[in-house]
Write a structure and sequence with these properties.
Blueprint (H helix, E strand, L loop, with lengths): L6 H15 L5 H24 L6 H35 L1
Helix pairs in contact: 1-2, 2-3
Amino acid sequence: MAGGKSVRDMLEHALGELLEAGRREEALVEASIAAVECALRLVTVSEGAQRGNPNLVEPTREALASARASVVATSCALWTMDDERRERTHER
């Protein structure tokens, strides 16, 4: 824990900052939001496991599905940025 903050606190702060930025139309910002939301789901599953919660199958599936979606969203954002960069380079 950095500065006494839990991982959940840091992720919630990061998510708040991303949401307040108001630039959700930017693919990489949206992908970053998805990644932080995914990390929060994984923290929730981890906390449940630490408390001995036996009912973690569905939350774990949801967290892993969120992780896959986050990777796809980030990949698409980066491909789009790369395509736009190549187009700008070609126009010169």
